[in-house]
Amino acid sequence: MTNNHKEHSYSVSVQWTGNLGQGTANYRTYARDHEISALSGIVVTDYQDEAKGIMVETEAGGGHFTRVTLRPAVKVSSISNTDLALQLHEKAHHLCFIASSVNFPVLCEPSIEVE
User: Fold this and answer.
1) Which of 8, 13, 24, 110 has its Cα between 20 and 30 A from that of 72?
2) How confident is the model at residue 34 (pLDDT cuts 50, 70, 90)?
3) Can you tell me the distance from the alpha carbon of 88 to that of 7, in angstroms, rounded to the nearest whole number?
């Protein structure tokens, strides 16, 4: 915190609910509420995110976010390549419309767990 401005922390939890029983095993096995590519052979069975944003108040009483950190926890099936899953997650983060549109850093700290 600089210049004695108040810093506020905001947290949100997100859970993907599109798994219809087989995760992203193929095109028909998950709800389309979120777009997830099954073309890589990665079968996502669960996705949760614990995101945290930091906002600093200005002297005038307004404020702005200074950074957001995403902490997606992804579960994949045992046939999935976890190294490839991390690479794809990094690629998706760099292609993200929202992260590319804001004027503060959006950090991503993913974890991949095999079921």
Assistant:
1) 8
2) very low
3) 33
- Rounded to a whole number, what is the distance in angstroms from the first to the last CA of the chain? 41
Q: Name which of 43, 54, 50 is nearest 18 in CA terms.
A: 43
* In-domain check, residue 2: no
CA geometry: angle at 62 spanning 1 and 14, to 5°? 75
- Structure-block tokens of residue 114: 């095999």
Question: Domain range spanning residue 12?
Answer: 7-114
**Which amino acid would we find at residue 99?**
A
Number of domains in the chain: 1
CA distance 13 to 51: 6
pTM for this one?
0.76
Distance, in Å, from the CA atom of 2 to the CA atom of 7, rounded to the nearest integer, reads: 9
